[in-house]
């Protein structure tokens, strides 16, 4: 399916739960879910034959860094990166506020990263109550 078709499917899923959103707002949720899922993948990290790397937040400032641990050296290298997670969550919150909706950000990249519902989503049952913003 194309991105446009995915957005229309999300609109139908949201409408079935009583959230009639515009194409633009549903598309914002769908795209934010993609960003959040990729962010979660990068937080989990990856490696190759030269290094291990991941996104890590500074414990004092909360700023995100791409952190690289080279296999042939001790220590780490850190590079400041844009906080795409915060930006995506801000956009989601704006959309949900317009519709009186609630959202849940699930940080495990093995599943959908964003769920939306007209009622508050419990931590232990978000996937049954909420609409998955991935198609």
Overview of the structural elements:
- The protein has 135 residues and is α+β, with helices and mostly antiparallel strands.
- It has a domain at 3-42 and 83-132.
- 41% of the residues lie in helices and 22% in strands.
- It has helices at 3-16, 23-44, 84-99, 126-129; strands spanning 46-47, 51-57, 64-70, 77-80, 102-105, 114-117, 131-132.
- Strands 1-2-3-4 form a four-stranded antiparallel sheet.
- A hairpin with a 6-residue loop joins strand 3 (64-70) and strand 4 (77-80).
- The longest helix is centred in the first third of the chain and has 22 residues, at 23-44.
Structure in a nutshell:
The protein is built from 4 helices and 7 strands. It has helices at residues 3-16, 23-44, 84-99, 126-129, and strands spanning 46-47, 51-57, 64-70, 77-80, 102-105, 114-117, 131-132. The strands form 2 sheets. It has a 4-stranded antiparallel beta sheet. A 3-stranded antiparallel beta sheet has the order 5-6-7.
> Strand tally, please?
7
Structural class: alpha+beta
Low-confidence stretches: none
Q: How can the largest sheet be summarized? A: 4 strands, antiparallel
| Strand adjacency order, main sheet | 1-2-3-4
Strand content is: 15-25%
| Helix content bin | 40-55%
Radius of gyration from the alpha-carbon trace, in angstroms: 17 Å
On the 0 to 100 scale, the average pLDDT is 94
Query: Count the helices. How many?
Result: 4
Principal-axes geometry comes out as: elongated
User: What oligomeric state do the depicted chains represent?
Assistant: single chain
Distance between the termini: 9 Å
Listing every helix as H and every strand as E from the N terminus to the C terminus, the arrangement reads HHEEEEHEEHE
